[in-house]
Amino acid sequence: MSRLLDRLQGEIDALDAQSLRRRRQIAETACAPLQTLTLAGSSAARTMLCFSSNDYLGLAAHPALAKAWAEGAALYGTGSGGSHLILGHSRAHAQLEETLAGWMSPFIPEARSLFFCTGYMANLAVLSALGGADAVIFSESLNHASLIDGARLAKARVERYAHCDVAALDAQLAACDAPVKLIVSDAVFSMDGNIAPVTALLALAEKHDAWLVIDDAHGFGVLGDTGRGVPEALGLHSQRLVLVGTLGKAAGVSGAFVAAHRTVIDYLVQRARPYIFTTAAPPAVAHALLASLALIGGEEGAQRRAQLKERIAQLRLGLEAVLPADGGARLPQSPTAIQPLIVGDNARAMLTMAQLDARGLRVGAIRPPTVPAGTARLRIALSASHTEADVARLVDALGETLASQQLTEAA
Ligand SMILES: *Cc1c(COP(=O)(O)O)cnc(C)c1O
C-alpha cells in the first residue's frame, strides 16, 4: 500500500515544485463581490473583494431565487426520486424545458430542450450520443475540458482544429468523407473570453453537411438583448445547431440544457447515457431556474447586462493604462465578463495572485494544463454586482503590483 501511496505523493510533490499544485479555499458566505473566505493553509477567514466567480449577473445569491428554491422544495420535496426516464422527471423540469425551447426557437427551427444536472454531463451526452463510430468530431483546440472528455467518450474519430482557424477547418472538413461530421466549439472561450467565429462555423456546417455543437456556458444570460447568448447576439438560425447552455453561471443556480431540433432531443433521450443513467436534479432546482429565466429575460436582466458592460469597459480602459511597457503582461481582446491578464509563467501568475491576496483582492490564477504552457494568467471575471469602486480598486492594485514586479526584475 505504501508504495502506491508514495507514487501519488511523488506526483503531488512534483506539481508543487512547478507551482501547479491546486488548493481549495472555503467560502463562508454566499457568492458576491465581497465574500468571506478561508484560504488554503490559513485558519482565519477573511473578507475579500472577489473577481473569480462565474456569477456574471450577480444572481447566485438573489433573494427571489432563494425564495423560488424554497417554494420548489415545498412543492416537490428535496429529491427527484429517480432518473428522468423512471420517475424523476417532474412538472418543474418539464416547464423549464418548455421555456428554454421557446427561448431558443428563434434560432433553431422546431426547437426542443433537455435539462441536465451539469454542463459537464450535457457535453458528455451530446458528443457521445451524436459522435457514433461512423462520425468525425472536429474539435476546436481551446475547447473546454468537458467537450474534450465528451469527444473521448464518443466512438467517433477526433480531429482538432487550430483556435478560430475557419480556413483550416474548411480544409479538414473537405478532406473528410465520414457520413456524420460534428463541429464542436465553445461559443465564448472560458479562459480567454473571446467569442468563436460561430457564424462562419455555421456556414461551414451548411457547406459540409455537418452538425454544429456550440457550448455557450459563458454567453447564456450575458450576451444578446434578452440574454439568450451567442445565438441571439449573432442572429444564428439553423436546424444544424445543437446548443449547450449552462445554468450554474450567469443563471445563478445549477444545471445545463441542450437545445436542438426536436428529433435530436428525442434521440438524446433514447441514447445519451449521461442523461439516462443518473438521478434527475432536484425539481426545486428547475423551479428556481424558472425564476432565474424570468429575471434574465426581463427588465432586471437587461439592467444587469448593461451594468456588466460598463464594468467591462472600465476595467479594460483602466488596465490598458497600467500594463507594463515591457509586455510582461497583456490583456487580449475580450468583449465578455471574462478578462484574461496573461503574465506567462506559472510562478509569476501565483506571485501576482498572492500580492493581490495581500491587498484583500481575489483573482484566480490559471495555469497549465487548463491553459497552454507559457500562458499562465489571472482570469478576471466581472459581475453585474461589482461596483465602479470595486473595479477601480482592482485596477489600482494590479497597476502597483505589476510595477513593483518590474522594479524587482530590474534590481
Ligand atoms: C463551466 C463550463 C462547463 C461545465 O458546466 P457545469 O455546469 O459547471 O458542469 C462546460 N463548458 C464550458 C465552456 C464551461 O465553462
UniProtKB/TrEMBL annotation:
<dbReference type="InterPro" id="IPR004839">
    <property type="entry name" value="Aminotransferase_I/II_large"/>
</dbReference>
<dbReference type="InterPro" id="IPR004723">
    <property type="entry name" value="AONS_Archaea/Proteobacteria"/>
</dbReference>
<keyword id="KW-0663">Pyridoxal phosphate</keyword>
<dbReference type="InterPro" id="IPR050087">
    <property type="entry name" value="AON_synthase_class-II"/>
</dbReference>
<dbReference type="InterPro" id="IPR015422">
    <property type="entry name" value="PyrdxlP-dep_Trfase_small"/>
</dbReference>
<feature type="binding site">
    <location>
        <position position="190"/>
    </location>
    <ligand>
        <name>pyridoxal 5'-phosphate</name>
    </ligand>
</feature>
<feature type="domain" description="Aminotransferase class I/classII large">
    <location>
        <begin position="48"/>
        <end position="398"/>
    </location>
</feature>
<feature type="binding site">
    <location>
        <position position="22"/>
    </location>
    <ligand>
        <name>substrate</name>
    </ligand>
</feature>
<feature type="binding site">
    <location>
        <position position="370"/>
    </location>
    <ligand>
        <name>substrate</name>
    </ligand>
</feature>
<comment type="pathway">
    <text>Cofactor biosynthesis; biotin biosynthesis.</text>
</comment>
<dbReference type="Pfam" id="PF00155">
    <property type="entry name" value="Aminotran_1_2"/>
</dbReference>
<comment type="function">
    <text>Catalyzes the decarboxylative condensation of pimeloyl-[acyl-carrier protein] and L-alanine to produce 8-amino-7-oxononanoate (AON), [acyl-carrier protein], and carbon dioxide.</text>
</comment>
<feature type="binding site">
    <location>
        <position position="246"/>
    </location>
    <ligand>
        <name>pyridoxal 5'-phosphate</name>
    </ligand>
</feature>
<feature type="binding site">
    <location>
        <position position="218"/>
    </location>
    <ligand>
        <name>pyridoxal 5'-phosphate</name>
    </ligand>
</feature>
<dbReference type="GO" id="GO:0030170">
    <property type="term" value="F:pyridoxal phosphate binding"/>
</dbReference>
<keyword id="KW-0808">Transferase</keyword>
<comment type="subunit">
    <text>Homodimer.</text>
</comment>
<dbReference type="InterPro" id="IPR015424">
    <property type="entry name" value="PyrdxlP-dep_Trfase"/>
</dbReference>
<feature type="binding site">
    <location>
        <position position="144"/>
    </location>
    <ligand>
        <name>substrate</name>
    </ligand>
</feature>
<dbReference type="GO" id="GO:0009102">
    <property type="term" value="P:biotin biosynthetic process"/>
</dbReference>
<dbReference type="InterPro" id="IPR015421">
    <property type="entry name" value="PyrdxlP-dep_Trfase_major"/>
</dbReference>
<keyword id="KW-0093">Biotin biosynthesis</keyword>
<keyword id="KW-0012">Acyltransferase</keyword>
<feature type="modified residue" description="N6-(pyridoxal phosphate)lysine">
    <location>
        <position position="249"/>
    </location>
</feature>
<comment type="similarity">
    <text>Belongs to the class-II pyridoxal-phosphate-dependent aminotransferase family. BioF subfamily.</text>
</comment>
<dbReference type="InterPro" id="IPR022834">
    <property type="entry name" value="AONS_Proteobacteria"/>
</dbReference>
<feature type="binding site">
    <location>
        <begin position="119"/>
        <end position="120"/>
    </location>
    <ligand>
        <name>pyridoxal 5'-phosphate</name>
    </ligand>
</feature>
<protein>
    <recommendedName>
        <fullName>8-amino-7-oxononanoate synthase</fullName>
        <ecNumber>2.3.1.47</ecNumber>
    </recommendedName>
</protein>
<dbReference type="GO" id="GO:0008710">
    <property type="term" value="F:8-amino-7-oxononanoate synthase activity"/>
</dbReference>
